[in-house]
């Protein structure tokens, strides 16, 4: 083989080696970028879930507090119907926040957390209906010391406690913070 052919063959082998090395580098970088993008997606998803779950837990507590302030107001003999109306307006505003938070959890997922949030919403709605009925009856009777309404209200409050805890447990599972 003459030296020029050997030089061309050597150069061709060098070019093939460079192309193959470049290809391996590009494939490796592509895989690294995919792993990085996946890690970023997982981080954003967890952050969105933490935010949605936190908002639902906070709005549940705010709504509960608003209902108890209403109950205190409507059963206070010195409290006029204007105070009941103000308390009820606060409850309505807080319900809007709660409902929005439930929807955010439904979007953030996963399905188990979304289902637990919906079960909590149903229980809170039952409590809401008991409170609304109490408010209407108090306005009709011109006082809120209505034993039947008070008992129904407290039963609905008790009934929401299990779905409340179940949502918190589903949130912990989704975030991987549930201890064995």
- Radius of gyration (Å): 31 Å
Structural class: mainly alpha
What's the number of extended β-strand segments?
A: 0
Query: So what's the overall shape?
Result: rod-shaped
* Mean pLDDT metric: 90
The biggest beta sheet is recorded as: none
Helical residue percent? Answer: over 70%
Distance, first to last CA: 73 Å
Secondary-structure blueprint of this entry?
Blueprint: H1 3-75, H2 81-108, H3 111-141, H4 147-175
Any key phrases for this structure?
180 residues; mainly alpha; rod-shaped
3D architecture notes:
- With 180 residues, this protein is mostly helical.
- It is built from 4 helices and no strands.
- Helix 3 (111-141) packs antiparallel against helix 4.
- The chain is rod-shaped and about 115 Å long.
A few lines on this structure:
With 180 residues, the chain is mostly helical.
């Amino acid at each position: 083989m003459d030296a020029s052919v050997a030089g061309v063959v050597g150069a061709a082998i060098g070019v093939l080696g460079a192309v193959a090395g470049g290809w391996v580098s590009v494939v490796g970088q592509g895989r690294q970028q995919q792993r990085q993008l996946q890690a970023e997606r997982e981080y954003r998803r967890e952050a969105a879930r933490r935010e949605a779950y936190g908002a639902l837990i906070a709005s549940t507590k705010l709504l509960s507090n608003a209902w108890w302030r209403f109950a205190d107001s409507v059963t206070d003999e010195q409290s006029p119907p204007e105070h009941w109306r103000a308390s009820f307006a606060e409850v309505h505003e807080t319900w809007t926040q709660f409902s929005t938070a439930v929807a955010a959890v439904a979007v953030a997922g996963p399905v188990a957390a979304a289902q637990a949030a919906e079960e909590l919403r149903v229980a809170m709605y039952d409590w809401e209906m008991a409170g609304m009925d109490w408010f209407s009856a108090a306005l009709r009777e011109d006082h809120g010391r209505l034993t039947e309404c008070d008992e129904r209200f407290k039963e609905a409050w008790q009934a929401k406690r299990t779905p409340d805890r179940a949502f918190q447990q589903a949130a912990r599972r989704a975030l991987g913070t549930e201890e064995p």
